[in-house]
């Protein structure tokens, strides 16, 4: 899990956004994090009143990720060859 710093607080972002630029919108109470390329909302958090806090929010907006089994099925479908199934 990556993280960004806003007002000395650290807020988690999905790993694929680590070392990447994101767009943020901040109100007095909420922080919204967006993918800078697509505009898709990545996460939303309540702003911490405590400077230096590490924020965790189990109800955060997860970026679309497929489970391993789904990925294997997708690979099998893309490479519909008899021998390919040995590798996945």
Please, what is the oligomeric state?
single chain
What string, H for helix and E for strand, traces the elements in order? EEEEEH
Strand content: 25-35%
Q: How many independent structural domains?
A: 1
What strand line-up does the widest sheet have? 3-4-5
Helix/sheet category? alpha+beta
Low-confidence stretches are 59-63
Radius of gyration: 18 Å
So how many helices?
1
Task: Summarize the helices and strands and which ones pair or pack.
Blueprint: E1 2-6, E2 9-13, E3 22-26, E4 30-35, E5 41-46, H1 68-78
Antiparallel strand pairs: 1-2, 3-4, 4-5
Could you write a compact summary of the structure shown?
Helices cover 12% and strands 31% of the residues.
Keywords:
single chain, alpha+beta, 3-stranded antiparallel β-sheet, two-stranded antiparallel sheet, 5 strands, elongated
Describe the structure.
The chain is an alpha+beta fold. The chain has one domain. 12% of the residues lie in helices and 31% in strands. Strands 3-4-5 form a three-stranded antiparallel sheet, with no helix packed on it. Strands 1-2 form a two-stranded antiparallel sheet. A hairpin with a 3-residue loop joins strand 3 (22-26) and strand 4. Mean pLDDT is 80; it is low at 59-63.
């Amino acid at each position: 899990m990556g993280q960004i710093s806003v007002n000395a607080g650290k807020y988690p972002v999905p790993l694929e956004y680590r070392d990447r630029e994101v767009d943020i919108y901040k109100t007095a109470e909420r922080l919204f994090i967006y993918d800078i390329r697509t505009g898709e909302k990545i996460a939303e958090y309540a702003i911490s009143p405590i400077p230096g806090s590490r924020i965790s929010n189990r109800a955060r907006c997860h970026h679309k990720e497929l489970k391993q089994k789904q990925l294997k099925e997708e690979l099998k479908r893309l490479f519909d060859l008899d021998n390919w199934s040995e590798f996945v």
